[in-house]
């Protein structure tokens, strides 16, 4: 009594036990599948019922382990399961748990192992936690619908309705929701795809794809960087971000973290529009926010325009220091205030005073005239 369904180009039998008396009943069941003395699968169960000629095995209190070529092990556990003894396919049909090599524990209503494809699948709602804990809570919590684990490649895909919570530091966590997600522990890399929203105590970002690179141990360790991008095929292709010192709209944004989980640097690229907390508006091809000698700094490159009070400043490269209000314009620099224009190779001014300093003036008026002196 086996129904057949298509599975990624392979015919996979839906495992259903016959309504007949089992051929053999075994207490303390153990099965090992090996090749050249290397274990590929081991399955243990408290009780097994074998059905012939269907070659099906009904199992209770199951614990199975499958290995890939890298000798990474994946454990699948559950209260009740059915196995095809010919193909080595099996399905945990009640309270499935999947333990991955990087100590993630996925919990699902059911889970199916396809021996030929070396995949573990679950179609229902899935949750995951990391075994290792810190400060009384797990490093990582994940929820989603539809799980596919590629055992051979060590990749995990959540297909729909993904949400995740990750600890950054003792006082800070980030939360992500997206349409789908892929986890690649071997590369210490996670991608959230489609309608991505990320929030933390000092960040809020929206985009179409978020790639997270971790510094140690894959998707459960501290993040090293966030790389957020938009979707050029959509009308609203830009990313939107609320950073500690400014709001940003651009084609993409990358954020780097230090070893304590604090923001170290951010880089926005592609038609950047930004507004700082002190109402300085910026357009540029690239905008970088970092620190220099302990001072917060904003670097701008390519077709830079700044709106500061009544001034409009333009150049190819600029630096802005929010704490003092100092602005440095370089390369084809100009400042326009009302009908007055000042040009030079390098212009300095402050958002907090009316003073302007110019090197090699090229404009229509000198800085004293612009200030009305």
Radius of gyration: 29 Å
As for the CATH topology of the largest domain, it is: lipopolysaccharide transport protein A fold
Distance between the termini: 96 Å
Sketch the major β-sheet.
26 strands, antiparallel
| Structural classification | mainly beta
CATH H level, superfamily name of the largest domain = Lipopolysaccharide (LPS) transport protein A like domain
Average residue-wise pLDDT: 87
**Beta-strand residue percentage:** over 45%
CATH class of the largest domain: Mainly Beta
Which CATH architecture of the largest domain would you pick? Sandwich
Helix content: under 10%
Number of domains: 3
Unreliable spans = 1-11, 134-138, 366-373
Instruction: Categorize the overall geometry.
Output: rod-shaped
**Count of helices?**
1
Total E-strand runs: 30
State the gist of this model.
The protein has one helix spanning 367-370; strands at 3-7, 10-14, 24-35, 38-51, 56-67, 73-84, 90-94, 96-99, 104-108, 111-114, 119-130, 133-134, 137-138, 140-150, 155-169, 172-178, 180-184, 189-200, 204-214, 223-229, 239-242, 246-250, 252-257, 263-276, 281-292, 295-308, 311-321, 326-337, 340-350, 356-359. The protein is mostly beta strands and 373 residues long.
Walk me through what this model shows:
This protein is mainly beta and 373 residues long. It has three domains: 1-124, lipopolysaccharide transport protein A fold (Sandwich), CATH 2.60.450; 154-277, lipopolysaccharide transport protein A fold; 295-373, Sandwich (lipopolysaccharide transport protein A fold), CATH 2.60.450.10. Helices cover 1% and strands 68% of the residues. The protein has one helix at 367-370, and strands at 3-7, 10-14, 24-35, 38-51, 56-67, 73-84, 90-94, 96-99, 104-108, 111-114, 119-130, 133-134, 137-138, 140-150, 155-169, 172-178, 180-184, 189-200, 204-214, 223-229, 239-242, 246-250, 252-257, 263-276, 281-292, 295-308, 311-321, 326-337, 340-350, 356-359. The protein has a 26-stranded antiparallel β-sheet that branches. The longest helix is centred in the C-terminal third of the chain and has 4 residues, at 367-370.
